[in-house]
Amino acid sequence: MSSQYSWGKEQALREQIVRVGRLMYERELVVAADGNISARLDEAHVLCTPSGLCKGLMTPEQLIVVDMQGNKVGPGTDANRNLKPTSEIFMHLEAFRQRPDIGGVVHAHPPTTVALSIAGVSLADCMLPEVIVNLGLVPTTQYATPASAENVDAIRNLISSHDGMILQRHGTLTVGRDAWEAYMRLESLEQVARISLILQQLGRGEPLPPAQVEKLLAQRQKMGLARPGEEEEFCQVCGVCHLDGQHIHPLPEADSEADLIRAITQAVLRELGQAG
Questions:
Q1: Which tens digit of pLDDT belongs to each residue from 73-122?
Q2: Structural domains of the chain sorted by starting position, each given as residue range(s) with its CATH number in brackets
Q3: How many CB atoms lie under 10 A from the CB of residue 194?
Q4: Per-residue pLDDT tens digits for 201-231
Q5: What global pTM score does this model have?
Q6: In 162-225, alpha helices (H)
Q7: Do 53 and 84 meet the contact criterion of CB atoms below 8 Å apart?
Q8: Close Cβ partners of 188 (under 8 Å, ≥ 6 residues apart)
Q9: What angle do CA 35, 39, 44 make, to 5 degrees?
Q10: CA nearest 4: which of 40, 52, 55?
């Protein structure tokens, strides 16, 4: 292993992953042998959960070290000698490859989030201030067969600009500086799903106004949580748009050329402070 590899670091991460797995199971974010967790050991090695084990009943010794090709490496123990890496390991490795800032990855099956993804309810909205700051917009991938190459493809174009995403009909993928932060983002995501479900049942709920979202994005930027490319998404979804350092309002859809001209005129007047 590389010179950055540390047995002390590995042991601490083993214990952290076991703790995260226990919480995921106790809070019903996974059941049976669902889900998987990983942590970066160094630039060439990742510690991950084994396939087929209940995440609430794992021991630190059962976790497996793999290289960046997904091969089981390093000295084995009696506890993991006959175990294989999680079948989702390549999804984890894609996240680590694309983003050096990621130290931990968590894949879970939170029931409310999964149900909303099947029902077609998006969680990429601007409803909750703490989610805007800590998670940003949460996209939903196209459906892909679990533990397949197409599942890796489904996250490839999203992981660089998102810390959490919903895998259509499958679950969630959250990342962080370590497995603990990735787990906390999983909890936040499922909480958003629960609130969204209640709003659906109540038949009401309005997103935050763009001016309020803009303040939250300033906080997100100050905390170092902003991701490259997210500005366009927040413009499209939340109406927080900027041009040459100035805030502009997105134009509404127009049914005709005359409507478009009218909308452009209103937008210009609004920016000049002359429109009601």
A1: 966 778 888 899 999 999 999 999 999 999 999 999 999 999 999 999 99
A2: 7-202 (3.40.225.10), 210-271 (no CATH)
A3: 14
A4: 999 889 999 999 999 999 999 999 999 889 8
A5: 0.85
A6: 179-202, 210-222
A7: no
A8: 130, 131, 134, 135, 164
A9: 125
A10: 40
